[in-house]
Amino acid sequence: MTDIVNILAVICLLTGGFFLFVGSVGLAKLPDFYTRLHAPTKATTLGVGAVLLGSMLLTTMRDGGISIHELVISLFLFITAPVSAHMMAKAALHKKVTALKNTHKRELMKRIAQQKTPE
Amino acid sequence: MTTASLLDAAILVTSAMVLIALLMNVWRMLKGPSVTDRILALDTLYINSIALIILLGLYNGSPLYFEGALLIAMLGFVSTAALSKYLLRGDIIE
Amino acid sequence: MRYILPMPVHSLMLLAVWLLLNGFSVGQLVLGLILAWLIPVITWPYTDHQSRAGKPLKIAAYVARLLRDIVVSNVDVALKVLGSNRSLNPGFICYPLALQGDFPLTVLASTISLTPGTVSVDFSEDRKWLYVHALHITTEQEMIAEIRQRYEQPLQEIFS
């Protein structure tokens, strides 16, 4: 039983570490701000979620009883990550951060920043 | 090799991955080029540090680190929101 | 009902989070019950009560689909990040909204941010358009149709 839980936890931890790593690679590597926004907001939430799942399995096994308060952090991150991404994107549009040249509908950015309709 | 030592190794490997991730975030934060890039790097930095703290708690077998992680999660979100708001309006409390 | 237990779902959530944070014991349960009753009573006048979510089964189906899509989207984004970034075709999408009301729109925007290669950027002033930034656009029509069919229509049913 302990062995199974340990192996499951190992899988969770390594998956989580991998996604956190990929999120930060994306942050360092992608070409402009708007594409960079994608990597951390998605990859890191799943990464932390997986690490917390591993931690949950281990503490449940170690202390006996069910330890689910790690769920609070995952839930909190899943709710707040889109909100902070949205706010940063808004701030970037307001600050006129430039987008890649081949961005589709790049000419609309000014209208989006002023919250106008597309036409 | 027992699964317990495998687990210890996995915790260390994951910590190393998160550490490299943190270094890349710091690099992005120093390089910019725009202010929002730095905020995004800070946001990623705090999320990664939550993972690192949880891993440290697992390694030491102590449940106390959980509270710290929760605090960082809350304050990190508030600071990201406040910084973005400052850029948007030039004012945080209206 | 309004004065005794104005927001039953909120009360239940508050109690659940309180017990998750502090561990289960009789004392914490009593304190949690008091807080779960008191906080909604105090905050009731300051919230807007436009949209109510119903149909628990549909909500569960939606959450399950969302969790699955989060995993799929993460693998998708990870592959795109690790691959060559030159072949990326990012861009903005104007998504015409059929959904109305603040809370449903927030849920839709958050869902879009959490799922495949898209981040919601802003609403237009009249709340009829949602601007979305996509990491890789194949065709705009296809993405709009996918969002509509996978997320907006289930949300419309939940909040109707």
Automatic annotation (TrEMBL), chain A:
InterPro entries per the UniProt record, alphabetical: PhaG_MnhG_YufB
Pfam families: PhaG_MnhG_YufB
Keywords of this entry: Membrane, Transmembrane, Transmembrane helix
Record keyword Cell inner membrane present: no
Keyword Membrane (UniProt): yes
NCBIfam families (UniProt xref): CPA3_mnhG_phaG, PRK12674.1-2, PRK12674.1-5
Protein's name according to its UniProt entry: Na+/H+ antiporter subunit G
Transmembrane segments: 6-27, 39-59, 71-93
TrEMBL record, chain B:
Transmembrane residue ranges: 6-27, 39-59, 65-88
Principal location listed in the UniProt entry: membrane
Membrane-protein topology: Multi-pass membrane protein
Record's keyword annotation contains Lipoprotein: no
Record's keyword terms, sorted: Antiport, Cell membrane, Ion transport, Membrane, Transmembrane, Transmembrane helix, Transport
Cell compartments where the protein resides: Cell membrane
Taxonomic superkingdom: Bacteria
Pfam families membership: MrpF_PhaF (PF04066)
Family to which the UniProt record says this protein belongs: Belongs to the CPA3 antiporters (TC 2.A.63) subunit F family.
NCBIfam families: PRK06161.1
Name of the protein: K+/H+ antiporter subunit F
Phylogenetic classification of the source organism: Bacteria, Pseudomonadati, Pseudomonadota, Gammaproteobacteria, Oceanospirillales
From TrEMBL, chain C:
Pfam family, one: MNHE
Highest taxon, organism lineage: Bacteria
Keywords: Cell membrane, Membrane, Transmembrane, Transmembrane helix
Main location: membrane
Membrane topology: Multi-pass membrane protein
UniProt-annotated location(s): Cell membrane
InterPro entries recorded: Cation_antiport_E
UniProt entry tagged with the keyword Cell membrane: yes
Membrane-crossing segments per the record: 12-39
Family: Belongs to the CPA3 antiporters (TC 2.A.63) subunit E family.
Name of the protein this chain belongs to: Na+/H+ antiporter subunit E
Organism: Thalassolituus marinus
